[in-house]
Design a protein that fits this description.
single chain; about 230 residues; alpha/beta; Alpha/beta knot; Trp Operon Repressor, Chain A; 2 domains; 5-stranded parallel sheet; two-stranded antiparallel ribbon; about 30% helix; elongated
């Protein structure tokens, strides 16, 4: 998988995408991430990328010219499965979408900033718009990191144990069951006996029941999504 990220603040990606699972996946050659500075595609001497809104109003708007120049520079080199704009008013990102997109070959993520991106770019170049939640960030960079991380960890070989991702929350429409590790008795708080029993069938049944109960209590909306 190749992920190209277009941003006004490329230095924001140095930490989140250079550690842990993502770092190992990149080192193994399982994925590529390329960060592109939109300012490099501005044609004026000041590398201007934003301007005032037509019609007035607070906040600047990302200009179409440098963003489109960046998009076309990349699409001239390869075909993208999706050109995604990270924006608060996009569809809310979830595990189902992550599972689908993790099978793509090439993705482009465009990070919004200021008051947003000129609507004409969104209408004519963007194929999908994604939000990571009903709140507003200073820009799309952190959201792009979230999406990239969630996709790369699903690539076969990214995790030491590939079956681990299958038991994550949301994979089967439920939250994960509680997990425990050593010591078996910590300050008098003991691990449930069933997990110490060695009885695989009972453990599977316990975890399934715990997942259902936790979902009902914490996220009942997940149980109604398909209705």
């Amino acid at each position: 998988m190749r992920i190209d990220i277009l941003s006004l603040f490329p230095d924001m990606f140095q930490g989140p995408l250079s550690e842990s699972i993502v770092k190992r996946a990149l080192q193994k050659g399982l994925a590529e991430i390329h960060i592109h500075n939109i300012r490099n595609f501005a044609t004026d001497k000041h590398h201007r990328v934003d301007d005032y809104q037509f019609g007035g109003g607070a906040g600047m708007v990302m200009m179409p010219e440098p963003v489109v120049a960046a998009i076309e520079s990349l699409t001239n080199e390869r075909k993208y499965d999706e050109i995604i704009f990270m924006t608060p008013d996009g569809e809310v990102f979830n595990q189902k979408t992550a599972n689908l997109m993790s099978m793509y070959d090439n993705l482009m993520l465009i990070c919004g900033h200021y008051k947003g991106l000129d609507e004409r770019v969104r209408q004519h170049f963007i194929t999908r718009e994604i939000s990571i939640g009903d709140y507003v960030l200073s820009g799309g960079e952190l959201a792009a990191c979230v999406v990239a991380d969630s996709l790369i960890r699903l690539i076969p070989g990214a995790l030491n144990d590939e079956t681990s991702a299958l038991s994550d929350s949301f994979q089967d429409g439920l939250l994960s069951a509680p997990v425990y590790t050593r010591p078996a008795d910590f300050r008098g708080w003991k691990v449930p006996d069933v997990l110490m029993s060695g009885h695989d069938k009972n453990i599977v049944e316990w975890r399934q029941q715990q997942s259902i109960e936790r979902t009902i209590t914490r996220r009942p909306d997940l149980l109604n999504e398909d209705e």
